[in-house]
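PROTOCOL LOG
Step 1. Enter all chains and additional molecules of the complex.
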Amino acid sequence: MIQAGLIGATGYTGEELLYLLLRHPEIEVTALSAMVDKPVSMAELFPRVSGLTSLTCSLMELGDVASCCDIVFLALPHTVSLTIAPFFLARGKKVVDLSADFRLRDTALYREYYGVNHTQESLLEKAVYGLPEFHRDEIRTATLVANPGCYPTSVILGAGPLVKGGLLGDGPLIASAITGITGAGRKAALPFHFSEASGDLRAYRLLNHQHTPEIVQELGRLGDAPVRLIFVPHIAPLDRGILTTLYVPVAPSVKERELIALYESCYKNEPFVRVLGGDRLPRVKEVCSTNICEIAVRLDAANHVAVVVAAIDNLIKGASGQALQNCNIMCGLNETTGLM
Amino acid sequence: MIQAGLIGATGYTGEELLYLLLRHPEIEVTALSAMVDKPVSMAELFPRVSGLTSLTCSLMELGDVASCCDIVFLALPHTVSLTIAPFFLARGKKVVDLSADFRLRDTALYREYYGVNHTQESLLEKAVYGLPEFHRDEIRTATLVANPGCYPTSVILGAGPLVKGGLLGDGPLIASAITGITGAGRKAALPFHFSEASGDLRAYRLLNHQHTPEIVQELGRLGDAPVRLIFVPHIAPLDRGILTTLYVPVAPSVKERELIALYESCYKNEPFVRVLGGDRLPRVKEVCSTNICEIAVRLDAANHVAVVVAAIDNLIKGASGQALQNCNIMCGLNETTGLM
Amino acid sequence: MIQAGLIGATGYTGEELLYLLLRHPEIEVTALSAMVDKPVSMAELFPRVSGLTSLTCSLMELGDVASCCDIVFLALPHTVSLTIAPFFLARGKKVVDLSADFRLRDTALYREYYGVNHTQESLLEKAVYGLPEFHRDEIRTATLVANPGCYPTSVILGAGPLVKGGLLGDGPLIASAITGITGAGRKAALPFHFSEASGDLRAYRLLNHQHTPEIVQELGRLGDAPVRLIFVPHIAPLDRGILTTLYVPVAPSVKERELIALYESCYKNEPFVRVLGGDRLPRVKEVCSTNICEIAVRLDAANHVAVVVAAIDNLIKGASGQALQNCNIMCGLNETTGLM
Amino acid sequence: MIQAGLIGATGYTGEELLYLLLRHPEIEVTALSAMVDKPVSMAELFPRVSGLTSLTCSLMELGDVASCCDIVFLALPHTVSLTIAPFFLARGKKVVDLSADFRLRDTALYREYYGVNHTQESLLEKAVYGLPEFHRDEIRTATLVANPGCYPTSVILGAGPLVKGGLLGDGPLIASAITGITGAGRKAALPFHFSEASGDLRAYRLLNHQHTPEIVQELGRLGDAPVRLIFVPHIAPLDRGILTTLYVPVAPSVKERELIALYESCYKNEPFVRVLGGDRLPRVKEVCSTNICEIAVRLDAANHVAVVVAAIDNLIKGASGQALQNCNIMCGLNETTGLM
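Step 2. Run joint prediction.
Step 3. Record the structure below.
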C-alpha cells in the first residue's frame, strides 16, 4: 500500500481528493492536515465519507506528516505550497501540488499574477507539469508534480492536438469558458450566495485571469512556438463542471475530417479523453463526477477557424482526479486505478 | 405625494421595497439610509432600479430622515428597530417596521427568541399587526405597523379561515413550510453558498424557529382561544418563495365543500388572496414577484384533517409588498396601488 | 460471477442500476432489454457508462434473457411487470421488480391506484417487500422481491422504529415529503420542463398519491396494527433526492432521549442508515449518489409528537441502490458490495 | 387607446407580451388567438395575469381579429406568419412579427435555414428590422416590423458601435453566447427536462444556428460592408437571459478609452441600453425581467481584439419587450411606456 498524506483537506478540492483516495485499493491515507482549531472528524465534516473512514483532520507538524507518508498532496491556497513543498522533497517524499505555485516557469509572471515573490526557483526546474496526456513520461519519474489548473486542463486538452500538430494559423487563440460555482472554492462570499448566483450569467476577470499565463506557457511548449491567447471565463448557475469553447485559427488547407482524425489519433489511447463522433457535442453533465474530458472539434471552413468544445468536471479532471492520476503514474500504479 | 423614507435599504427586503416604492404613482422616496461607509448610488448597488432613480443611500441622521418623510419603513435587523421607531413616532411620523420588534406582545417570548430585553413595552400596545386580510380597520388608523414575518403570513392566511370560523378540532396544527434562499438575507454564509444549497433540501430550526410564537399569538387572537402549533421550516434550492402545507385537525362534521366555501367566502373581496378551485394547487412560480397568496384547501375526511396549501413570494407578500399594502391603507390610498 | 439481466434499461432508474451493476465486482450484466426500435449502445445513451461497458440494449425475447441470467431486474412501468415476472420465476430465475406490481397485497387497492386488475395473485404471496432493514431474513430466501417505492422507503425507515416499538399515540401519522424531479421519470412533460420547474415549489397528488396504501400496509405490518396516514408529496427544483418530514403522535410518557436511543439502537448495525446525533439534521446533498438514509428525530414534548426527518437519494436508496442491496442479499453476497 | 391583438398567446413569448400589454396604460388587448381546442381563460393558463384580465384565448377567425385591432402581434412559429401577416396588412393593420419570417432579405437563406420557400417576397421589401437603437426612424413609419431574434439583439447591440464606427479589423467576428432555457420555447422535450438541463452546460447548433444569417445581414447593413461571423450558442441551467461575449478584431490604432467613449456616445440617449463603466461587467440577473441590454467593452491591446459582453432578458429585450418598444414607436407613443 502506498501511504499518502493530504494537506488542506477541508476545501472542495480536498474533500473530492479524500473521497477518491479512500476508495483507491492501493493507497492508504495516513495523514490529514488543515488549518483547523482542533481535530475534526472527516466523517462529520463531509458526511459522504462516513463509513469510508474514521480519520480526523488536525493541524499537524510537517514532520509527523512526512514520517508516515510516501506521497503528499498539497491542496492549499496559492503561495502556501512554496513554503511547504520543499520540506517534503528534502525528505525524499513525492509531492503533488494542486496550487499554482510550481506551474509558472517565469517567476516574474508568478509575481504579477499571484502577488508574491517566488522563493523556490530551483524547485521550479524539477517540477513537472502534471497533464498526463502530454507529459506522461516526465511525470513517471517526477518527485514534484505541479497539478494543472482547471481551466488550463480544458484548454490545453482542447487545443493541444492542433498546437502540437503544427496546425495553428495566424491570429490569437480564443478560449471562452464557462464554469460552475465550486470553482470559486468553499468559502462564503456574496457573489456566490445562492440568491446572487442562481439565475445569473456573467463574465469575470476578463482578459486578466491568473490561468492565462499558465495556458500560454504550456501551449507554447507543446508547439515549440509562442501562442497568443484571449481567455474569458464565465460563471453559470451550476455546482461543478467547465465547458470551454475554443476558436482556433488554422492553416487554410486543413479539412474538417483531418481535424477529427487528428484528435482521434492523438487521444486514441487516452483513458480519460473521449473524442465525440457524429453530431455529438460535449456536455458537462456527462463528465460530472468523472475524470473524463469530452472533446468535439468542428471546422468553420470559410474562416479557417477550428471550433473545439471541451467539457470536464473542474473538481476531478480539473483538480483532484488529475492529482490522483498523476500519483498513480508517479507511484508506478495502473493509471486508471481508483478513477473509473 | 406621500413622502417616504426607507432605513435599511441595502438588503433583499430593502431592495424589493425600494423597487416597489419607486414605481408607486403616489409615493415619493425622499430618504434612504443604511449602515454604509459612504454614500452609494442605489442604481449602482441594485442595477434594476437604474433609470428609476438617481437617489443615493447614506448613513443619515434620524432627524434628517424625519424632516422629509411622512412615513418611514424600517427594514432593519431584529432589535435595531426598537431604538429607532420611537424617534419617528415621537415626531408624528407613521412607521412600518419590517422587523420582529413589535410583533410579539409577550416581552418574555421576545427575549427568549430574539435574545434581548424589549425596551419599548408601551409602544407594543400601539403597534398593529399588519396583516390586512384580518386587521384592515386597525391598520387604517395605526401609526406603528408591525409587518408580519414571511412564514407567519403564509400560515395565518392559510389557517385563518378555519381558526376564525371556529372549526379547529383537537390536536396541534402542523405547519410544514419550504422556503427559497433569499429568506436567509443578503449576507455571505457557507450554508447559503450556491455549491452548498443547490441540489440540497433540509429542515432547519426544527421546533424552535422564531416565527413560532408570532403564529401562535396571531392565530390565538383570531380564534380567541389558544392554538397549539408544530412548525418546521425547510430550505429548497430556489431564489424566492414560500410554500406552506398545513395539517389542521377539524371538527368531524365538516365537509370538504364547506371548507372550500368558507375560504372562498372569507377571501372573496381580498385583492391579494386567490383561493384556487377545481384541481389546481398553489405554485410558488405563479406568485413569484407578486403580492398574491395562492391557497387551496382539501379535507382528509377519514382523519378529520384539513390540508391547506399556501404559496407566497417571501420578499413581497411575505415582506416588502405587504409593507407597501399596509402603507397604502395607513395613508388612505387605494390598497392595491403600486402592487398590481 | 452472478449473471444479471436488466429489463427497462433506458429510464433514470435503469441507468442508475446499470451504473451500479457495471462496477459490482461479483456481478456480470449479461442482458439489457428495453422498448427500443433498434439496438442502442449503452455508452452512447448514457455516456457516463462509457469505458465501463460495450453492451447494447435491444428489445430481447424473454427466453433469451432467461437463458443467460441468474437474476433479472425489472425497471418497468407499473402493470408491465405483472406479465413478465412470472416468465422468469417459472424458469427458476430470481426477480427484483422495481415497479409497484408486487408491493400491494390487497388487489382491490392495486386496482384502485394503478387502474388495472391484478392478474398474478398467487405470486403476491411469494413476493417479499424489499426493505432490508425490516425484512432481511425473508429477502435472503426470496425469489421475487418487490422493491419499495421511493417515498415509502423514506417514510418507513423514518417511522419504522416508532411503529415497531409500539410508541404510536393517537391520531394520524403525517408525512410531508419533498422530492427532486427525477422522481417523475425520464420523459418529456411540460410540468418538468426546466423553465416550469426551476424556481417553483408545489404539492401534487395531495391525499391520493399511489404510494399511500403501500406505506399504510407496510407500517401496519411492522406494528401489527392499522396505521392512519396523511401523505402529501411536494416537488422542488433539484435533480434528485427526497426529504421527508414525519409528524408522529407518540405516547405522552415518551422522552426525547428515549426516542433517540430507540433509533440508534434500531439502526446501529445497518450499513445504510445513519442516525444523526447532536444538532445535525439530514440533508439531501449528503446522501445524494449514495445508498444512505440519514435520519434525525426530535420530540415536541408539549404536543407529544415526534418529528422525524429522513433524507435519501430517490434513485439509489429509493430505487436502484436498494434493488442491488436486495440482490446482494438474495444471492448470498456481502450486502454492501458495490454500494459503498 | 390603441387596440391590440395577439396571435400565438400561449407560448412563453406570448405570455410575456400579454403581461406587458395588460399593464400598458395606452393599449387595450382586444383579441387573443392561439391553436387551442376550446377557449381558455388567460388567467387560468397564466396565473400571474389573474386580476389583470378576464380575457379568454380561442382559435379566432382572422377577420374577427382584424375587425377589433389597430395592431397585431404575431408570436407564432416560424413559417406561419408568412401566411397570416399579409391578411392584416391588406386590411390596413400594423403588424409586429416576432417570428423570423420577415427578417432575412435573402429568400435563399430563408429556405436554407427555415426549410420552406418564402412566399411573400414583396412584403420583405416593406418589412423593417425592429431594432430601435439602429432603425428607429424606419420603424416610426413601418406597417410591418420584423422583430429581431434574441441572439441577434444581443450581438448587434454589442457589435453595432464597432461596425457602424468602421473599426472592424481583419478576421471574423466571434460571438460566443449563453442562453437560459426559455429560449427553447414552452414545449416538452427531453433535452429541456429539468433533470437533463440542471447541472449541465453544452454548446448546440454549432456553426449552423438559424440566427447566424440574420446577424450577418444586419451587421453588414450597419457597416455597409460584408461581415464574417462565427456564432456558437450554449445552454446553461437558468430560466431566462442571454449573455453574449464578442471577440471583435479591431484596427491596431484603437485605444480602449476610445472604444468605451464610442459605446457611451452611441448609446447615451438610448433608454434601454446601459453601457457599464469602471470595473463592472454585465450580469443576466441585473437585466432579467427588464427591457435593458447591459454592455461592457474591453480591449486586448496586444491582439487588437475588442471583447464586448452584452446581457439581455431573452424574453423581453430579446422578444416581447422589444416588440412592445416597436409598437410604441409605430403608434406614436412614448417609446418607454409600459417598459419601465
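Step 4. Note key features.
The interface with chain D takes residues 171-172, 174, 176, 178, 180, 196, 198-204, 206-207, 228, 230, 232, 234, 236-241, 243, 245, 247, 249, 281-285, 288, 298, 300, 302-303, 305, 307, 309, 311 of chain A (CB under 8 Å).
The CA atoms of residues 253 and 304 of chain A lie 8 Å apart.
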